[in-house]
From TrEMBL:
GO terms for molecular function: endonuclease activity. This is Ulcer-associated gene restriction endonuclease. It comes from the Bacteria. The keyword Cell inner membrane does not apply. Residues 34-92 form the HNH nuclease domain. The gene is iceA1. SMART domains: HNHc (SM00507). Pfam families: ICEA. Keywords: Endonuclease, Hydrolase, Nuclease.
Length: 171
């Protein structure tokens, strides 16, 4: 790309020349209207907010932050599970986290968020797909990790806050 600023005074760009063309397939970000309508009625999957201010308005987010799945690019093949409701602030943060994952090859560690006990609900730190990352599906992350925590407690003899065989609450 070449910029020509020689025609007018100041810092204006008069002309842009493009050298070559993009041979890669471009991801179509459009989302089916029925999917948009569904998620616009939801609360943010990450923080639970649903408001009217600029940062709390709900946006429909592609769960896969890399946007490299050609099926999701086809609006006729999209499913509700390909998307989630996020407020603008959470969606902006997720975008940056996914960008960093793409650059480094390492997924976001959910234990950076206070209260999260596991880094992923599936898979490891090294990128091998978005499924399993907190950013991909925070609701599934909570469901899976809550189940793990419950099972760990049950294996240790805790049930409904009491240790088996004792009548004093443990928490």
């Amino acid at each position: 790309m070449e910029f020509d600023k020689g025609q007018t005074l100041g810092n204006f760009i008069d002309r842009i020349r493009l050298n070559g063309y993009n041979t890669e397939c471009v991801f179509n970000q459009s989302i089916c209207q029925d999917i948009k309508n569904h998620y616009k009625q939801q609360c943010c999957a990450m923080c639970g907010v649903r408001g009217n201010s600029e940062n709390t308005q709900i946006e429909v987010d592609h769960k896969d932050g890399r946007k490299d799945d050609s099926r999701v690019s086809d609006s006729n093949a999209q499913t509700f599970d390909d998307f989630q409701a996020l407020c603008k602030a959470c969606n902006d943060k997720k975008r940056q986290i996914c960008k960093e994952c793409k650059e480094t090859g390492y997924r976001f560690d959910a234990t950076k968020i206070p209260g999260n006990r596991y880094p992923f609900y599936e898979g490891e730190a090294e990128y091998d797909g978005c499924v399993g990352c907190y950013q991909y599906d925070p609701i599934q992350y909570r469901k899976t990790c809550n189940g793990r925590i419950y099972n760990e407690g049950h294996q240790k003899g805790y049930y409904e806050g009491y240790q088996n065989g004792y009548h004093q609450k443990t928490t």
